[in-house]
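Example for tutorial group B:
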């Protein structure tokens, strides 16, 4: 796929970062605007798409778990379907769409957990775009932290146990990809924990 090549990813990220700086410079001396209706529609669409994609993946993953078991279903190259691969690709392209968050405002184990969080996350964005503040915001942050608690150890397990245990089939993922993913997930985890502490625990102590 063209957009999954290294050059394409680097180009998109460079354009994204450049857009942030250009946007900040352009809006520096201007009155900020808030396209409430556009934000609501955008977030509702992303929430619904994430829900549809998540449910579709569960339909494919269920039979694989029953047929192969948990460990082979996570790592084996035989535990695979064309539809599941298509859902992987759709989830990948969805991340490009989610970059529009920054423009409007000038997150299989990992994918399914992340999609579940995004269903709730974009629903939250949709209902708060007009000023409403739900009571469960704190729990949403906790759910975001929990996804890294679940997915992080899974990545470490895939590297340490699967690749270096003679009794288990090695995961069909290069170790460098697993290490990179684990580092990124750890950084996300630390950022969300810091936010949770600052926004809820530290704030409640001051009050």
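The residue assignment follows.
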């Amino acid at each position: 796929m063209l957009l999954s090549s290294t050059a394409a990813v680097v180009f998109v990220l460079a354009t994204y970062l450049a857009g942030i700086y250009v946007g900040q410079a352009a809006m520096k001396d201007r009155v900020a605007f808030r396209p409430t209706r556009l934000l609501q529609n955008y977030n509702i669409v992303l929430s619904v798409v994430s829900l549809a994609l998540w449910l579709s993946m569960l339909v494919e993953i269920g039979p694989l778990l029953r047929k192969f078991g948990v460990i082979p279903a996570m790592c084996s190259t035989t535990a695979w379907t064309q539809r599941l691969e298509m859902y992987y690709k759709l989830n990948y392209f969805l991340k490009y769409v989610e970059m529009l968050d920054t423009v409007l405002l000038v997150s299989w184990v990992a994918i399914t957990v992340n999609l579940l969080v995004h269903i709730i996350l974009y629903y939250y964005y949709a209902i708060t775009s007009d000023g409403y503040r739900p009571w469960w915001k704190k729990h949403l942050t906790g759910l975001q932290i929990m996804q890294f608690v679940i997915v992080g150890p899974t990545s470490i397990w895939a590297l340490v146990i699967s690749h270096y245990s003679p009794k288990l089939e090695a995961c069909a993922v290069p170790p460098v990809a697993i290490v990179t993913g684990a580092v990124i997930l750890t950084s996300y985890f630390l950022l969300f924990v810091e936010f949770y502490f600052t926004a809820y625990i530290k704030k409640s102590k001051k009050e």
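Helices lie at 6-27, 36-68, 70-75, 82-98, 100-105, 109-128, 137-164, 175-206. Compare this with the pattern of hydrophobic and polar residues in the output above.
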